[in-house]
Each structure stands twice: as C-alpha cells, then as structure tokens.
Write a structure and sequence with these properties.
The chain is of the alpha+beta class. The chain has 3 helices and 5 strands. Helix content is about 25%, strand content about 35%. The relative contact order is 0.26. InterPro entries: Fatty_acid_synthase, HotDog_dom_sf, MaoC-like_dom.
Length: about 140
C-alpha cells in the first residue's frame, strides 16, 4: 500500500515476532548493550525481574517492522516513540517469547501518516503510546 493512499482506520497486517536468547545475544553484539539483565537470570532476578528480559530498544525496533513492512521500501519514517510499559521476559527454553504487533492508521494530514501500534506478549501490553509517523509522500 502507498502511504500517501492511507486512510484513518486502515489496519496493518499483524506481525508475530519470536525473541529467543539467541536473538538477545545477537542484538547485544550489534548494539553493544551487554547489561547482564539481558543474558543472566541470576543478575535479572537480583534486581527483581522475573529472569532475563529483552532489550527495550530491540522490542521497539521489532515492533517498527510491522510499519515498515506495510509501508514498503520507499517509506520514510519521520518519528517513532513508545513508553516501555512491561519487560519482555525471554525464557531459556529454546522457544523464547512471542510478541504480537498490531497497528492502525490513526491520523492523516497533508504531510504525514500516523500509525498507532499495539504490542503485546501473552496478551499484556509491553509498549505503550507506540506511535510511528511516516512522510505521506512516501512510496
């Protein structure tokens, strides 16, 4: 779909993303974020977390994929913001955690299209106030 043809109420195809411990290791290497809460159950639990959790920025980036996949390769992302509402525990079970990303166009004006995302794990919202603004003239 062309972003410039988007209308308020247009829904994006849902995206399901699996996050495993391997995903966390790869992201840590790429980002340089080696905080032990992202790889050590002991360190995470010592801070009151349920175990290892996904990096917030990783969760945010994975959620943005729903918008970029819908908007296509010519899309231009103008802004993106979220509130981190819940950690995403990633069990060391070979299965990991599953994120479900849904979205809808919530505003269209002469220059931009706003998409609001709903990002959940096991039915609980993990990102709040997740909004992506795209340039309306994007292909």
């Amino acid at each position: 779909m062309s972003v410039s043809a988007a209308e308020v109420g247009t829904t994006l195809p849902p995206l399901t993303v699996r996050v495993t411990r391997e995903t966390l290791v790869r992201y840590a290497g790429a980002s340089g974020d080696f905080n032990p809460i992202h790889w050590s159950d002991h360190a995470a639990r010592a801070l009151g977390l349920p175990g290892v959790i996904a990096h917030g920025m990783l969760t945010m980036g994975l959620a943005a994929r729903a918008v970029t996949a819908w908007a296509g390769p010519g899309a231009r992302l103008v802004s993106y913001g979220v509130r981190f509402t819940r950690p995403v525990p990633v069990p060391d079970d070979g299965v990991g955690a599953e994120l479900l990303v849904a979205g809808a166009v919530t505003a269209v004006d002469a220059g931009t299209v706003t998409v609001t995302l709903d990002v959940t794990r096991d039915g609980e919202k993990v990102l709040g106030a997740a909004r992506v603004v795209l340039a309306a003239g994007a292909a």
